[in-house]
């Protein structure tokens, strides 16, 4: 789904719709003006994450894996801040949403990968496995 407002540009209005010429022979109709950036993610993403977090299957899995029920308030707060940002360009909502996204990224970077990635395959990768031989 294409979404406007994420660093994309839109053309200026055409002549007769408010476009002006600078008077020096430059026509501004072909230029593009930057659009004010939108939220880091579409608001529907925050709503889906909040809805998923509240689901019974996710709650059961999270309780099984972590021993506690998931905290879904963060997704709800992010969804509400995103809606406020889209509705009225509220600076407080923008700051809260960006702060939450930064915290989410930092939380992911806190833990190193479990497996070490290898640079090349093992030297004997082409040798057949001994699966056919009886032990």
From TrEMBL:
GO CC, alphabetical: synaptic cleft
Q: Which InterPro entries match?
A: Pants/Emi1-like (IPR021475)
Residue ranges with Basic and acidic residues bias: 1-11
Q: Which Pfam families match?
A: PANTS-like (PF11326)
The ranges of region (Disordered) come to 1-39
Superkingdom of this protein's organism: Eukaryota
Q: What is its main location?
A: other
**Which family does the record assign?**
Belongs to the UPF0545 family.
Q: What is this protein called?
A: Synaptic plasticity regulator PANTS
């Amino acid at each position: 789904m294409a979404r406007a407002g994420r660093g994309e540009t839109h053309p200026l209005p055409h002549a007769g719709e408010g476009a002006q010429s600078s008077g020096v022979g430059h026509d501004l109709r072909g230029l593009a003006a930057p659009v004010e950036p939108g939220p880091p993610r579409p608001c529907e993403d925050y709503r889906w994450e909040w809805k998923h977090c509240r689901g019974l299957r996710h709650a059961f899995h999270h309780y099984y894996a972590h021993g506690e029920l998931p905290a879904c308030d963060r997704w709800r707060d992010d969804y509400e801040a995103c809606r406020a940002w889209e509705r009225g360009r509220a600076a407080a909502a923008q700051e809260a949403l960006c702060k939450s996204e930064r915290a989410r990224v930092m939380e992911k970077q806190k833990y190193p990968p479990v497996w070490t990635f290898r640079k090349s395959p093992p030297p004997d990768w082409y040798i057949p496995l001994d699966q056919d031989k009886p032990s």
